[in-house]
Amino acid sequence: MLLAIDIGNTNIVLGLYTGRGADATLLRDWRMRTDARMTADELALTMRGLLGEHADRITGVSALSTVPAVLRELRVMLGRYYSSVPRMLVQPGARTGVPLLVDNPKEVGGDRVVNTLAAHHLYGTACVVVDFGTSTNIDVISEKGEFLGGVFAPGMEISVDALASRAAQLRKVELVRPRAVIGKNTVECLQSGILYGFAAQVDGLVRRIVGELRSGGDTPVTVIATGGLAPLIVGETETIDHHVPDLTLVGLRLFYERNVH
């Protein structure tokens, strides 16, 4: 069984795969909160608790971390607790098969690289990946599977927190769909602004990106949503074609299979 570990700024997502290639199946996935102070031993113990009966059946590990402090502990954990199985870490110099056509390839986070790998594998076209997490990341992929760059914007939860901390009459609210766009109370006004405002932002950016991709012709472009907050907003957008919750886990699996035979 392959254990895929995706450590982001807000959450750690674990995925357990059986089989390889076309026969690969995501057996289970788990999500826990990221704590930048977590030690290698704490990380291993928490993951073992989630894995339960599967903990002793791991035959390979594919991992990434976009949090530098946790990346250091992740390396220690892999060496200490998974030394007997093949383990792959997404980092500069790793063989991902994704050309990074940007000014400084070392700046590109591992999650963006494996999302590129997964998106091109799944759809085989030029792609735009919208990752709804701590920040909203929009990554652009050529029809050849090259990473072309992208866009960063504050995430929905960051925006809610900022409003609550900077405006005396506003507070944190649950991110759910309000009764209508025109809010009748403070909570609905906030929910409408966040939900529909972000949907409009994503649609506007995606349309501009697709326009640039198609500047030389009518190139097919697939728009994919992923990330923990995607379910809140996908239904309100007009440009997203597919919602793939486990896109990063798919990319981690593909990265492992490219390197471990």
Notes on the protein architecture:
K(+) binds at residue 131. This is Type III pantothenate kinase. The strands form two sheets. The protein has a five-stranded mixed β-sheet with strand order 3-2-1-4-5, with helices on both faces. It has a five-stranded mixed β-sheet with strand order 8-7-6-9-10, sandwiched between helices. The longest helix is centred in the C-terminal third of the chain and has 28 residues, at 186-213. Helix 1 (40-51) packs across helix 2 and helix 3 (110-123) packs across helix 7. The chain is globular and about 60 Å long. Helices cover 37% and strands 24% of the residues. It has seven helices and ten strands. The model has no long low-confidence stretch (mean pLDDT 93). Strand 4 (60-65), helix 2 (68-81) and strand 5 (87-89) form a beta-alpha-beta unit. The chain starts with a strand and ends with a helix. It is α/β, with parallel strands linked by helices and 261 residues long.
Give a concise summary:
It is an enzyme of class 2 (transferase). The protein has 261 residues and is an alpha/beta fold.
What is the topology?
Elements: E1 2-7, E2 11-18, E3 25-33, H1 40-51, E4 60-65, H2 68-81, E5 87-89, H3 110-123, E6 126-132, E7 135-141, E8 147-154, H4 156-166, H5 186-213, E9 221-226, H6 230-233, E10 242-243, H7 247-259
Parallel strand pairs: 1-4, 4-5, 6-9, 9-10
Antiparallel strand pairs: 1-2, 2-3, 6-7, 7-8
Helix pairs in contact: 1-2, 3-7
